[in-house]
Amino acid sequence: MDNFWNIIWLFFWSFAFIAYLFALFAIVGDLFRDHKLSGWWKAVWIIFLIFVPFLTALVYLIARGNGMAERSARDAKQAQAATEAYIRQTAGSASPSDEIAKAKALLDSGTITQQEYDVIKAKALSQA
């Protein structure tokens, strides 16, 4: 039974260590993401994180936790907006009238038939 509890303790301390590493990386990332904090204060936080890691991480999360959440939410919104802009640019935002005009040009050049033109036109009008 003693071996079983050793395994439980191993899992517990492994989880605690990995959770600490996640918190540490989040703090360091937040420090460099915060443009309002001067370089000297960033250096002080990093020094304290090196020499008194657990206490400094706890103090940082308590003192600057709200700011971390705000910066993270702001960055997520910016990333979402950039993604949406890229998708709109890549996919193109052709209006139904643009689609019909392109189909008409294809019809006039003889690339498509009247029936194909009618299908494209109906499809473009139904998406509007």
TrEMBL record:
What sequence ranges are listed for the domain SHOCT? 98-125
> Where does this chain mainly localize?
membrane
Domain Cardiolipin synthase N-terminal: from-to ranges? 19-64
Q: Origin, by domain of life?
A: Bacteria
Q: Which residues form the signal peptide?
A: none
| Bilayer topology term | Multi-pass membrane protein
Does the record carry Transmembrane helix as a key word? Answer: yes
Q: Which GO terms describe its cellular component?
A: plasma membrane
Which compartment or compartments is the protein found in? Cell membrane
UniProt entry keywords in alphabetical sequence: Cell membrane, Membrane, Transmembrane, Transmembrane helix
Task: Give me the segments passing through the membrane.
Answer: 7-28, 40-63
Q: What is this protein called?
A: Cardiolipin synthase N-terminal domain-containing protein
Q: Which organism is it from?
A: Agromyces tardus
